[in-house]
Amino acid sequence: MATHQLSIVLAMFFLQLFLSSQSHSSVFTMVNKCRYTVWPGVLSGAGTTRISPTGFILRRGESTSVSVPTSWSGRLWGQTLCTEDSSGKFSCLTGDCGSSTLECSSSGASPPATLAEFTLNGAGEVDFYDVSLVDGYNLPMMVSPNGGTGGNRTLAFIGGAITILAAMRQLWHLF
């Protein structure tokens, strides 16, 4: 089994998977290349180990790495326009996970939310990932695997480069 490191970029929200055959875990590095703050959320799939943290803040230009077990599945996404009210309730305009706190509990993102979905060490011990718009679109996102062996290690873009550029232009004028 390989070690994986992955990075996610928000607007780019960028997620990079670093792959290495020397270890039995993965590292997801999330980088916020947006011109605004993004609050990533993490949801482990049914039957897989819950990873921590499940929610945190990434200011413009910041990055955070999260260790993930070798056989893991789940989703990562960016929450935007988040606030905490006078009673301490945390909420986000897009991608909110409904926990009322910075950390997400057992719920995924409320639409709209661009999702990065992963299955590590899946069928045939192969890693699978995609960027999904099934829950709508709130951020341009790119996934970039690094390291590892075999297979086709390509970048996953939402809707292709032209769509990303057009969406980035639309989002940037909002913030």
Automatic annotation (TrEMBL):
S-S bridge residues: C82-C92, C97-C104
Signal peptide coordinates: 1-25
Keywords noted in UniProt: Disulfide bond, Signal
InterPro entries per record: Osmotin/thaumatin-like_sf, Thaumatin
One Pfam family named in its UniProt record: Thaumatin
SUPFAM superfamilies for the chain: Osmotin, thaumatin-like protein (SSF49870)
Name of this protein: Thaumatin-like protein 1
Protein source organism: Gossypium klotzschianum
Higher taxonomy: Eukaryota, Viridiplantae, Streptophyta, Embryophyta, Tracheophyta
